[in-house]
Structure formats: C-alpha cells, structure tokens
Amino acid sequence: MFSYQAESKYVKVAHNGAEVERNSMKAARNGDQVERNSMKAAHKVAEAESKSVEVAHKVAEAESKSMEVAHKVAEAERKPMKPAHNPHQVPSNPHRSS
User: Fold this and answer.
1) The pLDDT of residue 32
2) Distance from C-alpha of 52 to C-alpha of 55, rounded to nearest angstrom
3) Which of 39, 44, 48, 81 is the most exposed place for a label (fewest CB within 10 A)?
4) Which pLDDT score is estimated for 58?
5) In 3D, which of 85, 69, 88 has the Cα closest to residue 77?
6) ∠ CA(74), CA(60), CA(55), 5° rounding?
7) b/e per residue, 76-97, with b = 16+ CB within 10 A?
8) Residue 69: exposure state from Cβ atoms within 10 A (0-12, 13-18, ≥19)
9) Whole-structure pTM value
10) What is Dmax (Cα atoms) for the chain?
11) For 2-38, what is each residue's pLDDT tens digit?
C-alpha cells in the first residue's frame, strides 16, 4: 500500500512537472510571438515616421516655392508698370527704329 501511494505521488509529481514544462514552452512561444508583434509594430512606427519626414520635407519645399513666388510678386509690385506691347500701335516717334 505504501509503495502504491508513493508511486502514485511520484506519477502526480512527474505529471505536474510535464505540465509545468508544457506551460513553460507555451509561455516561451507566446513570448516569441509578442516579440515578433513588437518588432512589426516598431517597423510600422518607423515607416510612419519616415513618411512623416517625407511629408514635412514636401511641405517645406512648398513653403519655399511659395516664398519665392511671394518674393517675385513683391518685386513686380515695386517695378513701374510698362505699357503692354501692341504690334498694331504706331510708334510715338516715327524716326526711331524698333
């Protein structure tokens, strides 16, 4: 009777040990999956940051072009207006060559 109880307890301990080992393996697999998911998320964050930098660069280029246009407009506003060239218009001084 004693040997049966001892053997039964030994079998239970061995069974529990095997279950602990299975649970440990599952936890390790889950840990690996969490790590893979974390790396995927980090990659997506890096891609989003890269796109954000690209967009910021394009915005800066557009602002630069806008400033150039504004500068040219300001220069044009400072210059006196020239009359529009009309090829049918008779020159005011007929002795002057065009």
Assistant:
1) 96
2) 5
3) 81
4) 97
5) 69
6) 145
7) eeeeeeeeeeeeeeeeeeeeee
8) exposed
9) 0.50
10) 139
11) 677 888 888 899 999 999 999 999 999 999 999 999 9
- CA separation, residue 58 to residues 1, 66, 98 (Å): 85, 12, 46
Q: Cα angle vertex 92, ends 88, 93, to 5°?
A: 120
Task: Please provide the DSSP assignment of the chain as one string.
Answer: -HHHHHHHHHHHHHHHHHHHHHHHHHHHHHHHHHHHHHHHHHHHHHHHHHHHHHHHHHHHHHHHHHHHHHHHHHHHHHSPPPPPP-TTSPPS-TTS--
In one-letter notation, the amino acid at residue 95 is H
Note whether 98 and 91 are within 8 A (CB): yes
36, 49, 51, 54, 70 from 62: Cα distances, Å: 39, 20, 16, 12, 12
Structure token pair of residue 29: 């697999």
How big is the CA angle at 19 (ends 18 and 21), to the nearest 5 degrees? 65
Among 30-34, 38-42, 55-59, 93-97, the least confident range: 93-97
